[in-house]
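Go through the following before class.
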Amino acid sequence: MKRLLVHGIIASTGLLASACTVGPDYVRPTITVPKVYKEAPPGWRIAQPADRGQRGPWWKMFHDPELDRLEEDAARENQSIIAADAHYRQALAVVDQNVASLFPIVSARAYGQRLANPAIGVPLPPQTYRSASVSASWVPDLWGAARRSIEAARANAESSADTSDAAMLSLQATLATDYFALRIADGQQRLLHDAVRADRRLLQIARHRYRSGVAGRIEVVQAQGQLDQARTQAVDIGIQRAQLEHAIAVLTGKAPAVFAIAPRPTIPAPPPIPLEIPGALLQRRPDVASAERLAAAANAQIGIAQAAFFPTVTLSARGGYRAPGTLNLFAIPARFWALGPALAATIFDGGVRSAVKQQAIDNYQAAVATYRQTVLSALQNVEDALVAQRVLREEAVMERAAVDDAVDAVRMTTNQYRGGTAGYLDVLTSRTAMLANRMTALNIHGRRLAASVALVAALGGDWNRAADQPESQQP
């Protein structure tokens, strides 16, 4: 028995020494990435290197403590993030499962049986049989199928981790965007409430002028209509704000009924964009990294399919004791053992293995195309965010000037109306223009905040430079 065990060990060692890994080794797909962004302003530089692990807390650049608290709550309580983390742990368990296939399987078995056999013609008393044994089997990974499976499982686990990071980044960006939209709604309500107060005063002036015989009834009707319209708009903004508050509640893992954000007079300012922006987009974007890892997993599947063309060797050993009830179970005569290899190979399968291999090749090519498309989409996201940053900043400057002009026009027409040198229609026209310009300026401010968040998401995280102080607290 010892001689056979020695020969078995020598044989298995020889098999392992000759083992190889079939299938193509993975090489990251190539894709041309521009060195500069088309929409980047003059003087901007691409920073190198960019660490994929340094993504946040990027929202702190907006200097808003309430946003900081909401982001922390969302990272801890959001159910989609919890689910993504669970999927990642599941992928790690799959890696462990595939690693276990490299090792032998050892099992133990014991049983007792009482058997009667009247079929021999002469009745015999029932006999008791007992057995205790240990068996081991091992399938050497001669062609690398198990190693390719581990390679694929690890790549899938890394892709799952990147998917979890992408879900976290998307959650953070969505929450910040909704929060800023809510603050813009607060600003719109303040503008409309101010308009309501001003329209009440104008209505009082119109009534006084009508009672004094200076103006006709039409001025009172126009003033009342303007007041009613401002009230209606103020109420309508409340719908949007409530819906944004509900969305933020769900993002932070809370029921809308137990969640509230109090209005406040200030709005965060867009952070200044530094002259250096991260250029290693393939390292920073978690969705890009996830797509690349899926391509690596698909490549490993080709090797698994290729290994199916080769025979499988199984080394097995079994030993133990088996005896009837009259004999001591662990006596030497009750001992037994078995040792030997087994070779199995598929001779004909009608092309099944070839079809499986072709499927793996096509799946890899599809994964490579998906990876490249993800990179192109990421580049588009960056360009879109950069052009939005540049154009909206220019719009904000021009709209601020338009607001100042509209305020001057309202002041002059109101004074003329009180002095009787201008009609209410002039006041109505100027006030409508001022409110429209203020609302436009506020909307541009909100779009600039959203564009800043979009740039963070497009770059895969913070641009690795602390933001300076906010430009202002009001648009």
Summary: The chain has one domain: 22-102+125-312+352-459.
